[in-house]
């Protein structure tokens, strides 16, 4: 406990310092990290170390909806453990956090997690995660209702792309046209056309199946000005 206190009593804390208090686990593509079905939840939380997972649900007719992609070095699945509200459930609701690619995470038990909550720096990390996710969900909802398709797509690219060896921002090849189309509520043909137009505008390029953003400043300007580009 003394080691624990020395590490996490600081006002700022790198989430990787909490790996030592969890068990390293791996997930295959399609595995569930956490699930909530009419109020039933798993008892553990995770810190995602690598890979991509998503908060999603499946409708009665089998259609999957993705609400949020989780980034590495984030808490995953801890909200139910902190929620003492007993909500009314009308009908079956199923929300899962699914590994979209092979993932590595650190699993922390409910009991260990409750101990960690005694440290303000851990609570601060969780609040940061909650705030980031809340803002992302609100922006995505607003964008889907009010912004042109091309603006939505560019927002997605800038949100999900990460620095790569070339120095550009690159989208994980997991994000196929079909995956992006399902998330944005569009058709995969629309995504393909927008990719072609953005390449013509020299904002992105493709290396194999990977999209790389080569002019993020111009793409951000397109979003803020809602510039129209034919596609």
UniProtKB/TrEMBL annotation:
Q: Name one GO molecular function term.
A: DNA binding
Q: What is this protein called?
A: Transcriptional regulator flp
Q: Name one matching Pfam family.
A: cNMP_binding
Q: Cross-referenced PROSITE patterns, in alphabetical order? A: CNMP_BINDING_3
Keywords in alphabetical order: DNA-binding, Transcription, Transcription regulation
Q: Which organism is it from?
A: Streptococcus lutetiensis 033
User: Where are the bilayer-spanning segments?
Assistant: none
The Gene Ontology biological process terms listed for this entry are: regulation of DNA-templated transcription
Residue span(s) of domain Cyclic nucleotide-binding: 39-118
């Amino acid at each position: 406990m003394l080691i624990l206190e020395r590490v996490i009593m600081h006002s700022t804390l790198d989430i990787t310092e909490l790996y030592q208090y969890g068990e390293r686990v791996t997930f295959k593509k399609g595995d569930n990290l956490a699930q909530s079905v009419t109020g039933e939840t798993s008892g553990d939380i995770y810190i995602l170390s690598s890979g991509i997972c998503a908060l999603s649900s499946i409708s009665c007719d089998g259609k999957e909806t993705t609400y949020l992609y989780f980034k590495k070095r984030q808490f995953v699945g801890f909200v139910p453990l902190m929620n003492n509200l007993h909500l009314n459930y009308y009908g079956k609701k199923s929300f899962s956090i699914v590994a979209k690619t092979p993932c590595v995470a650190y699993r922390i038990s409910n009991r260990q997690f409750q101990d960690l909550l005694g440290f303000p720096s851990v609570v601060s990390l969780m609040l940061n995660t909650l705030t980031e996710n809340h803002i992302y969900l609100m922006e995505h909802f607003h964008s889907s209702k009010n912004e042109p398709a091309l603006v939505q797509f560019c927002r997605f690219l800038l949100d999900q792309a990460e620095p790569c060896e070339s120095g550009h921002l690159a989208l994980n090849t997991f994000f196929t046209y079909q995956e992006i189309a399902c998330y944005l509520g569009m058709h995969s043909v629309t995504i393909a056309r927008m990719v072609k137009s953005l390449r013509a505008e020299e904002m992105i390029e493709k290396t194999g199946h990977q999209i790389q953003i080569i002019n993020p400043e111009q793409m951000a300007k397109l979003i803020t000005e809602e510039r129209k580009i034919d596609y």
